[in-house]
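[retry 2/3] Purine nucleoside phosphorylase: previous attempt timed out, resubmitting with same input.
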Amino acid sequence: MIKRIQETTDYLIEKGFDSPEVGIILGTGLGQLVDEIEILAEVSYNHIPSFPTATVEFHKGKLIFGNLAGKKVVVMQGRFHLYEGYTLQDVTYPVRIMEKLGIKKLLVSNASGSINLDFKKGELMLIDDHINLQGGSPLAFLGVEHLGERFVDMSAPYNTEMNQNIEAIAKNNNIKLHKGVYASVLGPQLETRAEYRYLKLIGADAVGMSTVPEVIVANHLNLPVSAISVITDEGDPDNLKPVEISEIIAMAHKAEPQLITIFKELIAQL
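[retry 2/3] Purine nucleoside phosphorylase: success.
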């Protein structure tokens, strides 16, 4: 993997990805941040050596480099998921590449369903902690110790300082921002009533199909990370209604301006 990482990094440097300071992973329906960036270089995933290719139709599949809020950023417009058939090493490979390119901070977004019924559609949740229900670890492979400490401490996986700054930014902009625990499941099917009840019992406030693998690898690389969920649907097991993916995308679009405000102001402070 070390050789692959170097080849991918060398390719991107040749394409103009010059010393980014902040990495950003954009989740389902959350691509509008790109409109705020002064784009200096962009490459489709399928042109990048050893990079996975986004197979989900609503994920664009581009790596973008440019200026945002006075900082050089590298942005994943579209991410990878286990439910696409990728391995956990595939899903997290871009995090290793962004770190190798030079990023010092990582910001992650996703769309999720609320377990905590005080969290409503269109609101944001700052992830304070997570539960990994994906059935594996992106660090469980031969030779991982050559890339970082195998037994990574996860007592505080999300950076306290960045999270505090995010909360202050949300307050100053009158943005309703919850804080809670994110459970990451395999998918791609949505949850049953019994699964929503189970998730509530084990302490989850929201559920999705991403983010946790990338956060684990960020911690493996000693890369400070923060993540925000956009609540796009509500998992009330006693009143569960069918959810269309188009509704999830539409709700993510609706809430995205608030997410953009937070990310832009945070990046300006970093």
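[retry 2/3] Purine nucleoside phosphorylase: The helical segments are 2-14, 88-101, 160-172, 193-201, 212-220, 245-269.
[retry 2/3] clearing retry counter.
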